[in-house]
């Protein structure tokens, strides 16, 4: 920061010039094509980047690439080039308008009709990219976009955006500082993804007992070949030497549907104290839930029993396969099926172990759907789904291992995600500070709107 201040005092003591984007670069809209011009062969067509290929954190995402046939008319300038700034110019959601990604190299992609490219001249394009990720640009968009342009960032709006142009040496120094933050965040995200893959590997290995089902004659031999951690393998060989028992869901659990009280009756909702869970609760608060966003009153029950704490909810319609462990007596909406251990079931089952098993059950649900009408899980088959119940000490050991990995990968209060959050805040703080300049001449307020 001190170096930047010295450079400003030396090279721009009276302030910096602000220029319209249209004066320092060009704005190019993307390729338009018809649905029937899309093909499935990556090798035989032209790859297209669209709005979903830019994340809200301004990175490229190549998971879902569209390919169009080579007969589509494409101008030379619609191919992406090194130092381009790719921007989302049209979307059904306002939060996606204006998100950007920086193109580090020439490559054989074009960009779709709801996208645009900002191609900068004279100025450091990476410096301009950081401005487009900042609150300076976000605030400009909020003032410029109205109800008629909310889904379309047109050329006029972009070309009139005022950009500070400090001397090149200052631009380069600012880019150096901000890129150091983004590089560190990239490294942390890479580390986090590696941990998640490691977690996924261990989760699948620890929860899949199909090879050592006690009904299989070769279960003992298969167990000897399994790459389990030493303590877990010893426990299995000691406590389940002939394999692991499997039970169906309906043998172990009371299975009930969720329920939504009438929204037209305020007595069911006003001053409610009973947790009532929806998918939003999982999205907002994770998979282990002790309270809900919305609550209902005792009158809303209308004779229905609450689901006891330590029940599992799993979505069997709409967003299928999502699940959570509820550690409070509660209800949920009809998107969910509740699984509560039967009172007369004497099997020792750690519900946290079954919670982890539900990641596999969720994947099974996605592959066993009745598609006639509204998509929903085949509930007859669901009740017959078999899952393993190893001895309790083994369940607890597996929970201990998976909890440790889960803490590292998903808990925002510890591990790598917390570090990423801190570094992101640091980057945003320095970005706003470094990109705020004293204008050389007073700016016209109308130009900023």
UniProtKB/TrEMBL annotation:
SUPFAM superfamilies: DNA methylase specificity domain (SSF116734). GO terms for biological process: DNA restriction-modification system. Residues 13-194, 241-421 form the Type I restriction modification DNA specificity domain. It comes from the Bacteria. InterPro entries: Restrct_endonuc_typeI_TRD (IPR000055), Restrct_endonuc_typeI_TRD_sf (IPR044946), Type-I_RE_S_subunit (IPR051212). The keyword Protein biosynthesis does not apply. One of its GO terms (molecular function) is endonuclease activity. Pfam families: Methylase_S. Gene3D superfamilies: DNA methylase specificity domains (3.90.220.20). Keywords: DNA-binding, Endonuclease, Hydrolase, Nuclease, Restriction system. Transmembrane segments: none annotated. The keyword Isomerase does not apply. PANTHER family: TYPE I RESTRICTION ENZYME ECOKI SPECIFICITY SUBUNIT, TYPE-1 RESTRICTION ENZYME ECOKI SPECIFICITY PROTEIN. Belongs to the type-I restriction system S methylase family. This is Restriction endonuclease subunit S. It comes from Helicobacter pylori.
């Amino acid at each position: 920061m001190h170096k930047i201040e010295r450079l400003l005092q030396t090279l721009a003591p009276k302030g910096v010039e602000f220029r319209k984007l249209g004066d320092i670069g060009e704005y190019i809209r993307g390729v338009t094509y018809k649905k029937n011009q899309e093909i499935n062969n990556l090798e035989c067509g032209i790859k297209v980047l669209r709005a979903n290929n830019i994340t809200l954190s301004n990175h490229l995402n190549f998971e879902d690439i569209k390919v169009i046939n080579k007969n589509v008319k494409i101008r030379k300038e619609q191919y992406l080039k090194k130092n381009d700034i790719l921007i989302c110019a049209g979307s059904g959601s306002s939060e996606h308008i204006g998100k950007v990604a920086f193109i580090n190299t020439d490559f054989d992609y074009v960009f779709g009709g709801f996208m645009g490219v900002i191609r900068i001249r004279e100025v450091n394009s990476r410096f301009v990219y950081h401005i487009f990720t900042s609150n300076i640009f976000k605030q400009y968009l909020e003032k410029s976009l109205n109800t008629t342009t909310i889904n379309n960032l047109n050329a006029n709006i972009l070309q009139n955006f005022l950009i500070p142009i400090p001397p090149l040496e200052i631009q380069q120094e600012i880019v150096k500082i901000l890129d150091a933050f983004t590089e560190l965040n990239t490294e942390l995200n890479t580390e986090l993804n590696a941990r998640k893959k490691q977690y996924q590997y261990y989760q699948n290995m620890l929860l899949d007992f199909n090879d050592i089902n006690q009904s299989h004659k070769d279960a003992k031999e298969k167990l000897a070949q399994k790459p389990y951690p030493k303590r877990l393998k010893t426990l299995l060989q000691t406590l389940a030497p002939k394999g692991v028992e499997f039970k169906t869901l309906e043998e172990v659990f009371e299975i009930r549907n969720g329920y939504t009280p009438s929204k037209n009756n305020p007595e069911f909702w006003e001053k409610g104290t009973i947790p009532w869970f929806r998918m939003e609760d999982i999205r907002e608060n994770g998979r282990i839930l002790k309270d809900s966003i919305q609550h209902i009153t005792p009158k809303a029950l209308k004779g229905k029993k609450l689901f006891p704490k330590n029940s599992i909810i799993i979505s069997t319609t709409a967003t299928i396969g999502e699940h959570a462990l509820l550690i409070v007596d509660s209800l949920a909406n009809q998107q969910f099926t509740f699984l509560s251990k039967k009172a007369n079931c004497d099997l020792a089952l750690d519900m946290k172990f079954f919670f982890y098993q539900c990641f596999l059950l969720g994947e099974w649900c996605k592959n066993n759907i009745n598609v006639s009408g509204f998509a929903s899980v085949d509930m007859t088959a669901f009740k017959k789904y078999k899952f393993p119940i190893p001895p309790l000490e083994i369940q607890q050991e597996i929970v201990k291992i998976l909890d440790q990995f889960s803490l590292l990968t998903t808990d925002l209060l510890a591990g790598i995600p917390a570090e990423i959050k801190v570094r992101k805040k640091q980057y945003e703080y320095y970005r706003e500070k470094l990109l705020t300049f004293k204008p050389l001449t007073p700016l016209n307020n109308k130009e900023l709107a």
